[in-house]
Amino acid sequence: MATFVLIPGAGDVGWYWHLVEAELRSRRVEPGLDRESRFLERLVDLAGPPGALSGYVDVAPPRLTTPSPAVIIVRPRASREFTMDSTDTPTQAGKRSPLSLDRLRLRFRDPALESAYRDDRFRHNVGNIRFAFLAGIALWVAWGLLLQPHILALADRRLDTIMRFGVFIPMLLVGLGLTFTPLFRRIWQGMSVVIATTTILLWVYYASHILTLPAEYGYVGVILITAFTYTLLRLRFLLVVLITVIGIAAYLPYAFTARYIVDVSRVLATLYLISFGVLGGLAAYRLERFSRQVFLRERQLDQERERSDGLLLNILPRAIVEQLKTSSGGRIAQAFDQVTVVIADAVGSTEQGARSSPEKFAAALDELFRRFDQIADRHGLEKIKTIGDAYMAVAGAPVPMANHAAAAVSMALEILAEAGQVRWPSGDPIRVRIGVATGPALAGIIGYRKFAYDLWGDTVNLASRLQECAEPSQALVSEPTADQLSDAYEFGPTQIVDLKGKGPTPARVLLGRRADVPITLPSA
Fold first, then answer.
1. What is the rounded CA–CA span in Å between residue 253 and residue 260?
2. CA dihedral in degrees (344, 348, 354, 357; nearest 10)?
3. Which residue among 297, 316, 345 closes a domain?
4. Domain range enclosing 168
5. Closest Cα to residue 148, out of 161, 131, 138?
6. What domain count does the chain have?
7. I want to staple 379 with a disulfide (CB 3.0 to 4.6 A). Which of 238, 352, 401, 407 is the partner?
8. Could you tell me if residue 92 is inside a domain?
9. Which residues make Cβ contacts (< 8 Å) with residue 130, sequence separation at least 6?
């Protein structure tokens, strides 16, 4: 056993202290409260090896083998502030997390995260890639039509037509066609690099043989091709740099060896290619870095959304949660013609609570109600609430159910069987009384704080009163419920029960399922 002591610190201790504090709080660790030493292993895993939190958080872990209770002191240091890079996650301290980003290569250290990012980027980018191919085709055609009158030599015109309509445009058409195949997801970046570099190399060859157009025509084309790689194709930063270097390395040797290109054109070509290359590389770097940061933020938002949805689903039915998401803030209220309500009460809980410690008494009720939750899930009932030592569930709300009465009675039988397997701290088996009633009901969410999905109406009151009148280890069922199920379940003779607020009311004791009736559970 170990005692965890939380010592608050200054407000500038950084994300890592907040993470440790949240972990402790999530385990309900309070000063002086004992917990299993197994949590120490979790804390050490969280903090890393001794000293990993040096300068940020003081963790004094005891030896697990020590026979006496140990004290773990977790304290933030106010003397040093922990800063987090915008691409890092709050789980980092001292050393980089697998979720962090390699600044140079722009690659997540976690392979699974990197793979998820690439899949996500492809899904969002495939439309841009198709548009890039279409735009490229349109530009090749438009430039060809506009420049054709200015290409004076017949040999140059013939070469322009062959290269433009026989090489460049068909390459883009092939790329466009591949975007509609399943294979494209795996090869799109490599294929884009091949098309871009091939286009640049062929463009340099083409420009070097079109002698009736100015020399600027060559390097402007290289700049436009490389610009496509990061503006529309949105290739990775490293791939953009690779294509840019290939373009510069392919064009400048031609520019400096061609006799008809004057020196000032060579200088301009060098300046333009290098300047646009650097600017394009910086743009590609910042675009990719930003997209990775957005991806991380979206994943964090998705995780928080899943967590909040999980919390809501522990409080409200799934159908109500979905309705809350789509509603405009109006009140949620429902009316049901027929539902069946089950209320189970643990007998003698007041006396048992007086004889037990709070922890042991709460543990016994917790185990009992957890079993009830599982039974409700198996039979398709919706847990409404617990009231003290009573458990309330409904079949047929918030989603109507055809066989709601059978599902509720089946749950009642299973509760009677399960309850005796759980014991009070005194060792006595827990016995329950159950009331089951069928009829109309109202349901909805009311209130502003600590709201919950609740059920109202005479059917709820009847189930509650029947439970109060039932004997220990007995389920008392309303007459309408028993009448619906008389072919599948056995009930005792009708008895008149004097119910508070209702007066004499017919009811029957649930005896069990008929032997010739198979057990059926609702499909998931």
1. 14
2. -60
3. 297
4. 111-297
5. 161
6. 3
7. 407
8. no
9. 176, 179
